[in-house]
Amino acid sequence: MERTAVYPGTFDPITNGHLDIIERAAQIFDWVIVALAVNSAKKTLFTEQERFALATQSLGQFANVRVMLCSGLIVEFARQQGAVAIVRGLRAVSDFEYELQMALMNKKMIPEINTMFLMPHERYTYLNSSIIRELARYGSPTIRDFVPAIVADALMKKEEFRARNAG
Ligand code: ADP
């Protein structure tokens, strides 16, 4: 039986930390679906089309990974896709409480689907999308160490656009 995992997130934008987790999941499962959350309460820098394009273009090297948009409950989406697991990245203790709450709630809704936590390489422990957005705001080239080149370019373009329109 082929095993599919769903890796959900906002991916605003996708970072090397996300890619690290996806690479690990792609080695464990036959198929990995990166489920890009849309309609969530979160306000995002990139539109869902932009986040989708950046994720898809960053994942070209993985033959068993695809990106899909998900507008409903992740666990329902996972069931519809025939997934056996939901993958989440766990960086620090600070991630734990929220992740535990979500995993337990998902398990209550659909007990057959387990949440699996993967740890990234330690170099990504302090990386998240919001730090990257903050660095980009100040034009820091350091973002290039933490996101794919196309994402860094898109961030810089977004900030130039914002700066032009603010002035
Ligand atoms: P969400 O809004 O669901 O937290 P994110 O895009 O921020 O969406 O994150 C998606 C998943 O990726 C989460 O499980 C998060 O913990 C994980 N993640 C984010 N950044 C990293 C990182 N640097 N290393 C490992 N996992 C990460």
Architecture overview:
The chain has 167 residues and is an alpha/beta fold. The chain has helices at residues 16-28, 48-58, 74-80, 93-109, 129-137, 149-166; strands at 4-9, 31-37, 65-70, 85-89, 114-118. It has one domain: Rossmann fold (3-Layer(aba) Sandwich). Strand 1 (4-9), helix 1 (16-28) and strand 2 form a beta-alpha-beta unit. It is globular, with a radius of gyration of 16 Å. It contains 6 helices and 5 strands. Helix content is 45%, strand content 17%. The longest helix has 18 residues, at 149-166. The mean pLDDT is 95. It has a 5-stranded parallel sheet with strand order 3-2-1-4-5. The site of adenosine-5'-diphosphate has 17 residues, from strand 1, helix 1 and strand 4.
Helix content: 40-55%
User: What order do the strands of the largest sheet run in, or round the barrel if closed?
Assistant: 3-2-1-4-5
CATH class call: Alpha Beta
- Shape, principal axes of CA atoms: globular
Oligomer: single chain
Would you count the extended β strands for me?
5
| Tally of individual domains | 1
